[in-house]
Amino acid sequence: MNNPFTLSFGKKPLQYISRIMQTNQIIESFNAEIPSNQIFMITGVRGSGKTVMMTNIADEIRADESWIVVELNPMRDLLQSLAAKIYGIPEMHARFLKARLDFSAFGLGVSIEDAVPVTDIESVIERMLEQIQQDGKRLLITIDEAANSENIRIFASSFQIFIRRDYPIYLLMTGLYENLYDLQNDKSLTFLYRAPKLMLEPLNYTAVRKHYMDIFGLDMETAEKMTVLTKGYPFAFQVLGYLYWENREKDIDDILPEYDQYLEEYVYGKIWSELSELDKKVLLEISVNQESRVLCIRERLQMKSELFAVYRERLKRKGVIDTREYGKIRLLLPRFAEFVKLQQI
Q: For residues 137 and 66, is the Cβ–Cβ distance under 8 A?
């Protein structure tokens, strides 16, 4: 049997722990007769499973024949791509021809005799959405790793128009917290500010432990030790499982150096490179002195409360600290403290 764990980002692994509540929240909202939300944003730190969760939701919805699911590349012209992908669906293509809709101005099909060509891309998509609506279907668009780019801004502005006109169109996006935050706070996209943003929490410890016990035939104590080492971080769950599968003759402690190396090279190095000097100082203080109390950290760094609050919020958005306990800060990522300590050498 091949290794059931994967080190690849974005691809749904064989060993996948679903986030049942958040997944159901999105699917049930989209399937509601009168949906309360037609947009959801999934966010979290790198390796938190954003893309995998979005893919899983898209697959579940795609299994319903009343849905059309289209995946768009945020680096391309999104409106043009959306029109091309809808037109490429055989049953929709047939409907457009039957309705004598001429989209040839955008390279979609051929000109239709005595039909007036549609020459605006928004109008093209509106005509398509009318046909989708008449066919009793809904359209889900997924966009991975969205950011505050021109392509996304143009698309989002058009999407708002489609929603106002009551078309059956839905949007599911993933992105790093700071990227989605910038997008939502763009002055031209105020409607996005109200869109639900789901921050991915750590995986359920019980589910992680059970997976390790079932796959490796481990006793609860050993599986618990592995679970604690992951802190519920999805990429860490995959890495530790992958390494243990390849080194089952070794003790867990013996594979920790390789575990740390994978976390650093795949995720932590990138996160660290994007931090400011003060961000790094805060993390060093937490890691080196094993201090979690905000007051002590702030006093050691000689930072005023107002300034410290800014950096605490920045690190929270980047998904590296947990601020849920009043007056305390804890590191969210597994063995991140060990990584941070090495950065001062």
A: yes
AA letter at 179: N
Chain centroid, CA 22 distance in Å: 12
Residue 197 class from Cβ within 10 Å (0-12 exposed, 13-18 middle, 19+ buried)? middle
Contact 108, 121 (CB under 8 A): no
Q: Is the pLDDT of residue 7 over 80?
A: yes
Mean pLDDT of the chain: 92
Q: In whole angstroms, what is the distance from residue 256 CA to residue 264 CA? A: 12
Joined together, the tokens standing for residue 114 give: 């005595």
Q: Residues spanned by CATH 3.40.50.300 within the chain?
A: 20-199
Supply the angle between the helices 177-184 and 305-317 in degrees, to the nearest 10. 110
State in words which class domain 275-342 has: mainly alpha
Sequence-distant (6+) residues with CB within 8 A of 256 are 229, 335
Token pair, residue 246, equals 């390849």
The Cα angle at residue 175 between residues 173 and 180, in degrees rounded to 5: 90
Question: What number does CATH give the domain 20-199?
Answer: 3.40.50.300
Q: How far apart are CA 4 and CA 211, in angstroms?
A: 11
Q: Taking the model in full, what pTM does it have?
A: 0.90
Instruction: Note every long-range contact of 87-91, with CB atoms under 8 Å and residues 24 or more positions apart, other chains counting.
Output: 87/128
**H or E element, residue 78:** helix 78-87
Q: What is the pLDDT of residues 120-177, one digit of tens each?
A: 999 999 999 999 999 999 999 999 999 999 999 999 999 999 999 999 999 999 999 8
Query: pLDDT tens-digit profile of 10-37?
Result: 777 777 888 889 999 999 999 999 998 9
